[in-house]
C-alpha cells in the first residue's frame, strides 16, 4: 500500500471530528482501500487511490466547515424537550402547571417531578407553551424564569388553545416553568403542552 494512503488513514484516525458520521467514514475508507488493492494491478490501483485521496480531502474540508458553522451533530448542543399534562386539572392563581408526561427530553433538562426545565448548558433557548382553556375560566398563564415572570398570556373565557413562544438567554442551572396567572385556570390535558430547545 502506498505511503500516501498510510498517512491519510493515520491523519483521519487522529482528528477529533465533532460529527457523528466520523467513525462510519473512516471505516468505509479503510475497507475500500483493501478491496481496491486486492484485485487491481499497481497502475490501476494507484489511479483509484489518487481519486479516493482527493475525495477524502474534499470530505475533510466539508466536515471542517460544518463544524465551524454550528458544531452540527454535537451532543453538547442537543437540548430539547416537550412535556404535556396527563389529566385535566383546575389550578389556583400562581400554581405550577403539571406538565408530567414527556414526549421527548433530549439532554435531560426537564424534570417531571417539579415540572421545571433546568438548563444543562448555557445559551440561547426557545420556549413555547399552549394551554387548552375551559369556557368557564379566563386563560391566564405565566412563563417563569428563576421565580420571576418572563412572559404572560391572557385568553378570554371560551374553549381554545392559548399560548406563546419566546426566546431567552439562560446560564447553566437556571430554571424555567409555567404557572397559572392571576386567576384560577382549568387546563385540558389533551391540548396543553410545554416545549423548549436550545438554538445557540
Automatic annotation (TrEMBL):
Entry keyword set: Collagen, Secreted, Signal
Main location (coarse class): secreted
GO cellular component, one term: extracellular region
Matching SUPFAM superfamilies: TNF-like
InterPro entries per the UniProt record, alphabetical: C1q_dom (IPR001073), Cerebellin_Synaptic_Org (IPR050822), Tumour_necrosis_fac-like_dom (IPR008983)
Domain of life: Eukaryota
Location of this chain's protein in the cell: Secreted
The protein's name: Collagen alpha-2(VIII) chain
Source organism (scientific name): Magallana gigas
Amino acid at each position: 500500500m502506498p505511503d500516501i494512503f498510510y498517512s491519510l488513514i493515520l491523519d483521519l484516525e487522529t482528528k477529533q471530528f465533532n460529527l457523528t458520521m466520523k467513525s462510519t467514514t473512516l471505516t468505509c475508507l479503510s475497507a475500500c482501500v483493501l478491496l481496491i488493492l486486492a484485485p487491481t494491478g499497481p497502475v490501476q490501483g494507484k489511479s483509484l487511490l489518487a481519486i479516493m485521496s482527493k475525495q477524502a480531502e474534499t470530505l475533510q474540508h466539508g466536515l471542517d466547515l460544518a463544524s465551524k458553522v454550528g458544531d452540527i451533530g454535537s451532543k453538547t448542543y442537543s437540548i430539547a424537550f416537550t412535556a404535556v399534562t396527563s389529566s385535566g386539572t383546575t389550578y389556583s392563581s400562581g400554581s405550577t402547571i403539571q406538565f408530567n408526561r414527556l414526549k421527548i427530553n433530549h439532554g435531560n433538562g426537564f424534570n417531571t417531578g417539579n415540572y421545571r426545565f433546568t438548563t444543562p448548558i448555557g445559551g440561547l433557548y426557545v420556549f413555547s407553551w399552549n394551554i387548552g382553556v375551559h369556557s368557564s375560566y379566563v386563560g391566564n398563564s405565566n412563563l417563569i424564569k428563576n421565580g420571576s415572570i418572563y412572559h404572560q398570556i391572557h385568553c378570554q373565557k371560551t374553549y381554545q388553545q392559548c399560548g406563546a413562544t419566546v426566546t431567552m438567554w439562560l446560564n447553566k442551572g437556571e430554571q424555567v416553568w409555567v404557572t397559572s396567572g392571576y386567576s384560577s385556570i382549568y387546563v385540558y390535558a389533551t391540548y396543553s403542552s410545554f416545549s423548549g430547545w436550545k438554538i445557540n
